[in-house]
Design goal:
271 residues; 9-stranded mixed beta sheet; 18% helix; 4 helices; L,D-transpeptidase catalytic domain-like; alpha/beta; two-stranded parallel ribbon
Length: 271
């Protein structure tokens, strides 16, 4: 009996000693204790540990704002404060804030460059002046050099208006008659003008109905069989300058006044 117990204890010791030795070998180099970097982990909160404030505040996630179709292109622009640029990167492209939003098709005469605050010079406003001439009353005399149109009156007087005339290379002189009159005329640019402006990157419409944006303005008086007219304008600040393709332009209020005073058949002298 005693001998049997001795043998049993010996067998148990033989089994336990290798296992203990293997356990000691496994943990000779203890692994480091790894603590969650997230101090807000639920198991730490259960222990009453309060999360520490981060050294650097996290950046908010920027979300793209939806833009409805049909809004102007400026609605698609990225806010300046949200743009990130690398100062060391080569500047091969301009930043969006430096770009000028332009229409896909620029119609030169439909979209004149406006000059805020620009006003017409006093000498180009309508006024009655002394004007000795051999022409009969009712004749129109256009002085392109000084930018004046005279409606001859009796007793050496004339009603004078300021006008815009042909730009360099488009000046002309001659004598014609008013062959037709039109209120709020439609504008059909000549083929030559369309081609000339297209070469400059300005695309003109084939036809434009009359209205405030029409370059012919409120009234038009056609001269003979030519393409020239005395007409209004959608750019009144150009009165007194040589900017047209040969037509004589006036302020809308002035050409309307003249329109009522001049019948078809009136003699027109351009000099």
């Amino acid at each position: 009996m005693v001998w049997s117990r001795f043998l049993l204890n010996a067998c148990l010791a033989g089994l336990l000693l290798p296992a203990a030795a293997m356990a000691d070998d496994r943990y000779q180099v203890r692994p480091p204790v790894v603590v969650s970097a997230d101090l807000a982990a639920p198991w730490l909160l259960q222990l009453g540990v309060k999360p520490a404030q981060p050294a650097v505040a996290p950046q908010p996630v920027r979300r793209m704002q939806p833009v409805a179709y049909g809004q102007p292109r400026s609605a698609y622009a990225v806010p300046v404060h949200s743009r990130q640029t690398d100062p060391t990167a080569p500047q091969t492209m301009r930043q969006p804030e430096q770009m000028q939003m332009r229409p896909a098709v620029e119609q030169a005469s439909m979209m004149p460059v406006r000059r805020p605050g620009a006003s017409i010079a006093p000498q180009f406003l309508p006024q009655v002046v002394h004007y000795p001439t051999q022409e009969k009353p009712g004749t129109l005399v256009i002085d392109t050099n000084n930018r004046f149109l005279y409606l001859v009156m009796d007793n050496g007087m004339a009603r004078r208006y300021g006008v815009g005339v042909g730009k360099p290379g488009f000046e002309w002189a001659g004598e014609h008659r008013v062959t037709r009159k039109a209120e709020w005329p439609e504008w059909i640019p000549p083929k030559e003008m369309i081609e000339r402006e297209a070469a400059k990157g300005h695309y003109l419409p084939a036809k434009m109905e009359g209205g405030p944006e029409n370059p012919l303005g409120a009234r038009a008086m056609y001269l003979g069989s030519t393409l020239y007219r005395i007409h209004g304008t959608n750019a009144p600040w150009t009165i007194g300058y040589g900017v047209s393709s040969g037509c004589i332009r006036m302020r809308n209020e002035d050409v309307t006044d003249l329109y009522e005073r001049v019948p078809v058949g009136t003699k027109v002298i351009v000099m």
